[in-house]
Write a structure and sequence with these properties.
7 helices, about 15% helix, about 450 residues, mainly beta, seven-stranded mixed β-sheet, single chain, elongated, about 35% strand
Length: about 450
């Protein structure tokens, strides 16, 4: 077979059927009958020759037994005596206008000497093209990006084919696009994350994906089983992407500022902010005692105590603008590794020694810092999803809705029901007199993506 003349896909002529192709099966799936979803109608393939040209091929039901054992994804094969037909499928995987049909006279043999230009010959489209929706939705696209946000699986429909998972991926320039994965593709991502809870970064490639525009918002979707997905695969493209994106570096430095709140006194019973007032023993008495009061119905008639809880304002910045968030007690403790009361005492001691600049707050792994806060668009969400642990390298939110913000935009919510959750951002007025310790955290990425992370802490 190797001695035969090999024809490239671009040289095929549908007036002949005696060609020999040397190709690799870069995608293989089974197409099911529309009338009976349990019946396989055909075996579908995307073939690629040594020039990187791709073409679609089919094996119909009557020939399954002849070819099923010979056709495996990622195998290289010789194919001879196939028929060439017009490609009438709406969704095109290449600009080749023909497709191949394998039939009873077709022969298939293993090929051991296939010379790849690249393994899958990806044709990545720019994120600008996706965002502007200038590409045609009936032509497949390839995308690569780091997962930065993940929604919850929508499995409400009885049909698994309609179960979907939304996420966002980011390119090396910091642009983000929405991705929606359906059916097995959604479950493949979830399974990967559950099996790799300590992974530091998730980079995916979607090959033969489709651009979809819904309500004016573009997203990348898998197109049934035509699409192929790679998650942190050992591919040169993913390795190069990871290397170019660089490592997040952490800089922690301290300065002194005035009058910036970083904690508040919380009711030990309900967690709400308490009020403090002075009670004098008599009208002419100069002696006063401090009474702690909680105004909630649950605590009005109870004797309560209070304890300081973190409420740290954070400034997050990238190339699209700046946003103000608030870090509450549980997540702040995961970063600082000290309770608010412990840090207050430490700041007091540093102030008494005359060295307020010498306060040490331990820095942590990049992954931990990223886990501590979950934010996309207008929704500040808990960092712990339903099933996946908080060691995941990106944010969890539902639904994902990327919104570009101008500098100065903020999030403020006046209600706050649970000090152990970062789902709401309160506006609180507790202050501590004296100097303020500013913890300034900056993430610097090689690709000029800058994430400014400001944690403001006040000394007494």
């Amino acid at each position: 077979m190797a001695a035969r003349n090999i024809t490239f896909i671009s040289d095929l002529d549908n007036m002949r059927d005696d060609y020999t192709l040397k190709v690799c099966i870069i995608r293989l799936w089974r197409s099911f009958s529309e009338s009976d979803p349990t019946v396989v109608k055909s075996i579908e393939m995307i073939l690629m020759d040594e020039m990187g040209t791709k073409i679609r091929a089919s094996v119909y039901r009557k020939d399954f037994q002849r070819f099923d054992s010979k056709l495996k994804e990622d195998d290289a094969i010789y194919i001879r005596s196939f028929t060439i037909a017009p490609n009438k499928y709406t969704f095109k995987i290449s600009d080749v206008t023909s497709k191949l049909n394998l039939h009873g006279q077709t022969t298939v043999h293993e090929c051991l000497g296939f010379q790849y230009k690249t393994k899958y010959e990806f044709c990545f489209v720019s994120f600008e093209t996706i965002i502007s929706a200038t590409t045609t939705s009936n032509i497949s696209i390839d995308v690569i990006g780091e997962v930065v946000s993940l929604g919850k699986l929508d499995s409400r429909d009885v049909s698994k084919s309609k179960h979907r998972l939304t996420l966002q991926i980011r390119n090396l320039e910091g642009l983000q696009v929405n991705v929606t994965l359906f059916a097995d593709f959604a479950y493949q991502v979830i399974s990967y994350l559950e099996a790799h809870k300590q992974v530091g970064r998730v980079v995916i490639i979607l090959q033969f994906a489709r651009l979809n525009v819904y309500n004016g918002i573009p997203s990348v979707n898998n197109y049934f089983d035509h699409t192929r997905m790679f998650i942190n695969a050992d591919l040169p493209e993913i390795v190069a992407f990871t290397d170019r994106s660089g490592n997040l570096s952490l800089l922690v430095q301290f300065t002194i500022r005035q009058d910036i709140d970083w904690y508040y006194d919380a009711c030990s019973n309900c967690g709400k902010k308490v009020d403090r007032r002075d009670v004098f023993s008599g009208p002419d008495s100069g002696d006063a005692s401090v009474v702690v009061e909680c105004s909630t119905d649950k605590c009005k008639k109870k004797e309560i105590s209070s304890a300081p809880r973190y409420k740290i304002p954070i400034r997050v910045q990238d190339d699209s603008g700046t946003i103000t968030l608030t870090l509450f007690d549980r997540d702040a403790y995961r970063l600082v590794k000290q309770r608010a009361s412990e840090l207050i005492e430490k700041i007091k001691q540093a102030g008494n020694s005359g060295n307020p600049d010498d306060i040490e707050i331990a820095s942590h792994e990049t992954k931990s810092l990223k886990d501590a806060i979950s934010q996309t668009g207008d929704n500040l969400t808990p960092s712990m999803p339903d099933k996946l642990e908080a060691t995941s390298p990106f944010k969890f939110n539902s639904p994902p809705n990327v919104k570009k913000r101008n500098v100065g935009d903020t999030i403020d919510v006046d209600e706050y029901d649970n000090v152990n959750s970062s789902t709401k951002v309160p506006r609180l007025n507790s202050k501590v007199d004296g100097n303020t310790v500013l913890l300034f955290v900056v993430f610097s990425i090689q690709t000029f993506i800058v994430l400014g992370f400001f944690l403001f802490l006040i000394s007494i």
